[in-house]
Amino acid sequence: MQRESRAAHYAAGSLAAVSLVLLSLPLSSPVRAFKVCAAYVLDPIPYEGEAGYERIAQAPGRVRDLLNADIENRRLRDRLRSDAWLEQSARGLAEENARLRAALGLKTPPALHPLWARVMGRDPMRWYSSFTIDAGALDGVSLNDAVLARSSDTIVAAGRVVDVSRREATVLLLTDERSAVAAYLSSGTVEGLVQGQSQNPALLRMDYIDSDARIVPGDQVYSSPTSVTFPADVLVGRVLSVNPRDPFLSAQSAEIVPAVDGASLQEVLVLRARSSGGGPPSADEAEVRR
Fold first, then answer.
1. How far is CA 73 from the centre of its chain?
2. Which of 100, 111, 219, 258 has the greatest number of beta carbons closer than 10 A?
3. Nearest one of 129, 128, 145 to 230, comparing CA atoms
């Protein structure tokens, strides 16, 4: 017991001596680095948040990078633990959905294989219409594959593949007048058809909405389960305004702000009908330009 007590006193004395030496030294770069590292190892909590960034900013560049990397690593580990639970929940829901489909005799939708691709180029004359990505038939991309994008932390609808070569593909954006997607309003079960506009290529137009439906600006618009291109419940945009009703028509329309600015996209998510290198080529792939 006495030996442990003496050891504790020696350790405390040594730390006190080291602290006095460090306090007496000039604030050179190595001393600042040692102080910041020692303080972080003993108590990393104060280095979280805005005040923590101010503390780290006093350290030299390399030490600052190491501390920032460790903080980010701990945050990612916490997120992975949360994602593991979400993945398990999603797997359970998928299995339950498959059992219900089998019990009801419903056809199981084909599995989709996501692939991230980068935007390679755009046509200046059709900036809001299309762009080229660095993934093609060799990556499993085929005609009419749905193309999604990230907006903040949400995956939203962007367009579809309309042309495929071996190593690249052309994506037609929803804002092109040749694009259309069946969609519904979040304020109810009202459905309509969202299309691009040639007069205002930065906005979408939702047509064929029931004339008795109440449309509120700000309502979210999602892809319908009847869509042949996009999975159900993918965010398409939000209602900007409601167009004046035509008394001779039985439907109304609304202006829609796209969920993502297609003209500024740098990376997209392609939902492929097949994974790369798997299975025989489809009829679409047989016609791919070489």
1. 20
2. 258
3. 145
